[in-house]
User: Fold NUDIX hydrolase from Streptomyces rubellomurinus.
Amino acid sequence: MTSTHPDTPALHADAVRTLTDWRPAEQEQDQLRRDYLAHLDEQPEGLYRACLPAHITASAAVVDPAAGRVLLTLHPKVGMWLQMGGHCEPGDPTLAAAALREAVEESGIPDLTLLTADGVPVPAKLDRHQVRCTGKDRPENTHLDVQYIALAPAGAQALISEESLDLRWFDYDHLPELTDHSVRDLVARARQLTG
Assistant:
């Protein structure tokens, strides 16, 4: 397949490196990691929305550890409270940069930083889910989401974007009902990893 995005080789190589280097302890997460790597091996364009029936996406739970809170967006298409995130774009130099870009755009907080290990941003978890990102009258496709933790400065003020119906901070122990197990698990991991 010919690459239609000039930055695809660099972003693709970064995604492969990120998923190769990241070694989760849980067997289910490691299986997802291997599935994502197989997808990237088969799909040179596997990081972009046009790659169907599945593509890699990047997201981040925006947390304010000092206040013990997480910022969630009420997604207009899904109708649930989710972490910030979305599709990779041709200008994204790395998978982590895509997650950070989405987090900044959707939160309105310009000075977010991703949680790192040895100075390198690392995923917190992976989540595979079905969506209709190509339109409600189109078949579902699969998001292979790579999820990070974005640290907000203490007391950060969020600013809602047009991509959201609502945007709110929630205490770790009082997440809204309209969240799924994946969001709850990501928030629990963020809480654990940020102490």
About this structure: The chain has a mean pLDDT of 92.
